[in-house]
Write a sequence for this structure.
């Protein structure tokens, strides 16, 4: 009876521990789901077109607007204003509205709070227009007229006004793309040729004595330079002409407060009437905003536009990191598990690997800056790009050094996971392979590695998840706020390992802590955070699918 009582007491204590463990797991899941839900809601709501309200104000109760008695904007939040009580009911705090008023070029701000007591009337006029501009964010106003380059005018009440404005914006968009093609491709190619000629001339001039062949080469270089400079001036004139044409058509609009503003249509990306949209119209604008966010380049200190360069940079860096970390991690695990004798050296290596997994990421960034950038990159510049010095080519931050730094940071994860996967392959399978005449390496290559591939991929997944979200080391070895060109393009040699790049994690940091307008950057912070989570999940899902496929293929090898 005593033994039964003791067993019952132990069982009860064990059940309590199980319930506490379940409670902790449930709380953790709830916190994760809540956090993801908040990020998803705020990130998606950024793209949903909201209605615009016009407020009639009591100017005696509003500061910072001068004599403006009306203003239009999008309500972004409603809250109770602490420290200010209602005059009619002192126990009730005054409610205030935050509006996105746009028109930063006119007001000097994009967001403003208004006490409800200062609001005399609220309306939603259908004539209000939202203009997505290249500078100063969105404009919210009433359109007045369009003026063409030839002087023709189309008034806002004309039935063809919307179609005319849309056609002009499309023309300006096509012209903008042509300017970009001229400057980045054709003029960029000429600049590349001129730089090549400069380096060739510098190489010849550094010789102690010039031969007749050298003099002929210098003459040829001068002729080629003259020809390229002539082509450069022609293309530059074309670009200037296109830019002047961009400024020829004008849009006149009137703010809710009464001021009239003239804007070049070349500075407008799109427009819509938010209060005239039905549900499907809002869905159309919503999809358009998401597509623009994914494929456009950032503008206005990264608070407007898209994040395509950051998406591309994050993906390429994670891919290069995975390619670099996998072979080294797997080979190290094979040696430690299959070949190395257990001794002081091997134990020291294992301790070092475990300790490396806990080193702060910024330490790896400092090491990457010192070893990869300054030592390896500087040596490459001395050996192969000495003519370009003191301007560094590889001796500065770049995507290759960022990838190698993160590979070094995540290699302990891959080694530990790969070792566990190799150890999980049963001894009987190894002995069966050896009994059939296979060598040890053949057994490892054809039996052990395929059977342990799912576990090795688990380590890769963990490494990708950690590496894709790291920011601190990247700030030292290659990431930048704005990258003028992508690390992979259609210019030879197509993959430019030396170029700096943009990263979603650093983009979030820059928006959240370095942006000059924190209110305007907050929506982009949530949207970019959601995108980074989705990108990491997609990369992990692809790796998990491959792992599961290999697991099904080699599941018999686990017996």
């Amino acid at each position: 009876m005593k033994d039964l009582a003791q067993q019952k007491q132990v069982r009860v204590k064990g059940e309590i521990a199980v319930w506490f463990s379940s409670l902790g797991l449930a709380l953790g899941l709830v916190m994760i789901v809540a956090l993801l839900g908040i990020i998803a809601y705020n990130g998606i709501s950024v793209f949903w077109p909201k209605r615009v309200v016009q407020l009639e104000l009591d100017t005696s109760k509003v500061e910072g607007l001068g004599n403006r008695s009306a203003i239009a904007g999008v309500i972004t939040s409603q809250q109770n204003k602490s420290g200010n009580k209602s005059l009619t009911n002192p126990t009730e705090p005054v409610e205030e509205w935050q509006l996105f008023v746009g028109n930063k070029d006119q007001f000097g701000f994009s967001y403003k709070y208004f006490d409800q007591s200062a609001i005399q009337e609220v309306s939603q006029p259908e004539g209000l227009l939202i203009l997505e501009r290249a500078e100063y964010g969105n404009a919210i106003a009433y359109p007045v007229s369009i003026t063409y380059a030839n002087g023709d005018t189309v008034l806002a009440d004309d039935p063809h006004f919307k179609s005319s404005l849309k056609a002009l914006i499309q023309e300006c968009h096509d012209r903008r793309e042509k300017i970009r093609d001229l400057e980045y491709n054709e003029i960029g190619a000429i600049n590349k040729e001129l730089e090549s000629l400069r380096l060739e001339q510098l190489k010849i001039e550094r010789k102690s004595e010039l031969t007749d062949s050298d003099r002929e080469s210098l003459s040829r270089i001068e002729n080629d330079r003259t020809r390229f400079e002539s082509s450069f001036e022609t293309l530059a004139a074309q670009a200037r002409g296109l830019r002047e044409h961009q400024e020829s058509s004008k849009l006149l609009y009137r703010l809710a407060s009464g001021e009239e503003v003239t804007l070049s249509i070349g500075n407008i990306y799109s427009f819509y009437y938010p209060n005239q949209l039905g549900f499907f119209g809002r869905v159309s604008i919503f999809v358009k905003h998401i597509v623009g966010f994914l494929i456009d380049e950032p503008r206005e200190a990264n608070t407007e536009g898209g994040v395509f360069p950051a998406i591309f940079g994050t993906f390429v860096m994670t891919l290069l990191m995975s390619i670099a970390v996998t072979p080294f991690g797997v080979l190290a695990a094979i040696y430690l598990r299959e070949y190395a004798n257990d001794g002081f050296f091997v134990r020291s290596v294992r301790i070092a690997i475990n300790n490396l997994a806990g080193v702060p990421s910024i330490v790896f960034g400092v090491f990457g800056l010192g070893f990869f950038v300054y030592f390896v990159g500087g040596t490459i510049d001395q050996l192969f790009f000495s003519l370009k010095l003191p301007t560094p080519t590889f001796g500065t931050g770049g995507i290759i050094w960022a990838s190698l730094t993160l590979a070094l940071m995540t290699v302990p994860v891959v080694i530990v996971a790969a070792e566990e996967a190799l150890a999980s392959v049963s001894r009987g399978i190894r002995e069966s392979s050896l009994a059939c005449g296979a060598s040890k390496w053949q057994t490892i290559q054809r039996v052990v590695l395929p059977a342990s591939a799912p576990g090795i991929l688990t380590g890769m997944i963990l490494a990708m998840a950690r590496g894709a979200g790291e920011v601190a080391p990247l700030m030292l070895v290659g990431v930048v706020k704005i990258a003028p060109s992508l690390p992979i393009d259609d210019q030879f040699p197509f993959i430019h390992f030396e170029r700096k790049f943009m990263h979603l994690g650093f983009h979030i940091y820059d928006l959240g802590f370095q942006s000059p307008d924190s209110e305007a950057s907050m929506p982009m912070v949530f949207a970019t955070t959601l995108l980074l989570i989705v990108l990491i999940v997609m990369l992990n899902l692809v790796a998990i699918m491959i792992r599961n496929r290999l697991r099904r293929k080699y599941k018999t090898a686990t017996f």
